[in-house]
Amino acid sequence: MSSRRPPVIVIVDDEEMVLTSLRSFLRLETEYDIETFDSPAKAIERIRESTIDLVISDYLMPGMNGIEFLLEIKKLQPYATRILLTGYADKENAIKAINEVGLYQYIEKPWANEDLKLIIQNGLERRFLMERLEEKIKEVQNVQQNLQDIQAQIIKAFM
Amino acid sequence: MSEEHPPSTLAEFQAENARLRRAVEELSVLNGISGAISSMMSVESIVEMIVQESVKYLNVEQGAVMLLRNEEDTDPFRTVARKAYSGSDAVPFRFGQQLTGWMLKNQKPLLINDLGNDVRFRNVASPDFAIQSLLSVPLKAKGEMVGLLNVFNKRTEEGFTIDDQRLLSIIASQSAQIVENVRLYEELQRRSAELRESEAKYRALTQEAGEAILLADFSSRRILEVNDKVEPLTGLPRRMLRGRTLADVIPVAEWSDTDTFERMSSGGHLSYANVKLGDNGGPTRFIDVSATIVSYGDNKIIQVICHDVTERQKLAEHLRDHAEDLEREVEARTLDLRNSQTQLVQQEKMAALGRLVAGVAHEMNTPIGTITSNADTLSRALEKLDKIMQSDEIPEAVRGLRGLKQVQSVLDDIARINQLACDRIIGIVSSLRNFARLDEAELKTADLHEGLESTLTLVHYELKNRIKVVREYGDIPPISCHPNQINQVFMNMLVNAAQAIKGEGTITIKTFRQGDIVNVQFSDTGTGIPPANVSRIFDPGFTTKGVGVGTGLGLSICFKIAQDHGGGIDVESEVGKGSTFTIRLSLGKDTKAGALR
Lengths: 159, 597
Ligand SMILES: Nc1ncnc2c1ncn2[C@@H]1O[C@H](COP(=O)(O)OP(=O)(O)OP(=O)(O)O)[C@@H](O)[C@H]1O
Ligand SMILES: [Mg+2]
Hints:
The complex is a heterodimer of chains A (159) and B (597).
Chain A: E1 8-12, H1 16-29, E2 33-37, H2 40-49, E3 54-58, H3 66-76, E4 81-86, H4 91-102, E5 105-108, H5 113-158
Parallel strand pairs in A: 1-2, 1-3, 3-4, 4-5
Helix pairs in contact in A: 2-3, 3-4
Chain B: H1 10-38, H2 43-58, E1 60-68, E2 77-84, H3 97-106, E3 110-112, E4 134-141, E5 144-154, H4 162-208, E6 212-217, E7 223-226, H5 230-234, H6 238-241, H7 246-249, H8 258-265, E8 270-277, E9 285-296, E10 299-308, H9 310-390, H10 396-399, H11 402-436, E11 444-446, H12 448-463, E12 467-472, E13 479-481, H13 483-500, E14 505-514, E15 517-524, H14 531-534, H15 554-564, E16 568-574, E17 578-586
Parallel strand pairs in B: 12-14
Antiparallel strand pairs in B: 1-2, 1-5, 3-4, 4-5, 6-7, 6-10, 8-9, 9-10, 11-13, 14-15, 15-17, 16-17
């Protein structure tokens, strides 16, 4: 399944310089499909269209803060891994949001590239595990349904 | 008397005889009187004798000497001696107004033999005996009438004669001087009695009065008499006070001012409040002085009344002291308030600075994050490029290009240095953040060495190559504190030390534990503090640095912070050698710091 397509990563930050450096680093070091947006609204539009695997959001942005944005994403695509990129002073808010938003991780600015790479890798793995788990549950449910159907036919046959 | 014509008849002879006899008697009467005077009899008895002799000699029922009164009265005459023929005191009587008036007006002898029928004098008052005839002659001294010598009711048929009148006149003129003397004497007596009386009264008054009273002679200003109250007031015995001048005893300049005394003489009085006594060795006393001039006959006397107001003065002084105490206290409290106010202001400033620093640090996160990340990405990219260049697909010719190698190595160097530079910036930003520690308003358990290192990073610029920092960190546990405040203390200590070191020097930071106290000691090789200043360096506003360089608040705030952390600051300093500041901080959790913002 993961081999089918490269993982889609969405990055949202109102600062062009942050978007560029993250994109440059990830393109150099990974095979991910990187999409960057300088506003939460644009990102939401995009996310409505098709499945994404991981989203990294800045905290302080005009219009909508990172937590509100990630909450929106949680509704739209619950399996996408959510990561908050915060300044030191916003750490407290990030910590508060962990449960509320179901935050996978928060990354402090200034970040270390290597750490970021690892966190993204783990986040994606989690996301695919979650998907696989979902698929398995569906399979089990299908099997169960089949079994029920068979059961029903058997009962009919014996009635 | 006519001696030239001898008597021709018996009658004449008899008459002459009688005349001679009378003359002899006259003379003997006058002799007796003169003798009495010369024998220095008491004046009362002289007057009585005059009356007695007159009554006997003129052969009348009664006689009296009356003197003019000095004072106003309905009866201008006063009877001083009164005799009846028998020698006993005569019954009293009064001259009526008409008789008195006549005598005062005419001042000459009056002879009346039939008073009852004399229309001029109807109402001679005499309740106990009736006056039928009278003979009254004025008593004159230095030409002025001073009284009357009277005889009443001639015991012979013929009544008063001219001879009687002449004889009584002679007696009167002889007696007048005596009577005048009597009058003067009596006056003297009366006056002295009065004086004695008033003196006694005055003395009683002055002795019993609550006030101290001094009497002094008007012209010499010398003290004549004092009452009992003066002794304790001046500390001088009465005998030593007498004869001194007023100025000696009561230091008031006006005693020698003639104008003042002129005014006092015409009824004015002198008064002074709070005159201080005791410069003569006596007790220190304060008196209100009031002086007036009183007259004793012809003598003028200065009467000085002293009212002891020492208690009042003491009370006033006490009040003044009390007021001064209050003032001092208010001043001290105001100073306290001002100090805590400046400390508050300074703390507020520090907090504002902290917020600023934190804000700046936060703003720097994004660009620094970007640069750091880019530097890393660049290194990785260059590494990849290098790998690509090494691959077989790249022709040897391209790989061997000299320019390419050069560009690659320049990019490598830059990427490496950028990364070092970024690490440095990240370190400073995190120190700034650590120093401000805005997120730590409550007590935190903090490692003091961490705080010292953060602070040292920030003052790195001040110390640079000039000052060597020696760390002698001991084994100290983390303490419960406000890290941002403690860092402020470290900062001020380091800055003060750096400013005290002219040129090169060393700051030694030593940490060690003593029971429940953790010590952080900053020793510098700076200028040192003169002993006179040591006690003042913790005063808010005390600075030896120029205007605009130091606020002088640094140490006062440090001291307060150390106190709030259950400790304090000790100083040791030697001019020319350096100073050591020891910050004592309590380990414990129950310090006052918990109550701080
Ligand atoms: N290490 C030291 N060596 C010599 N003198 C010192 C030292 N520390 C303090 N002082 C003296 O104490 C004074 C008061 O110090 P304080 O820190 O209270 O104020 P300041 O340093 O003058 O001003 P500010 O702290 O506002 O810059 C200084 O002006 C200086 O004279
Ligand atoms: Mg200072």
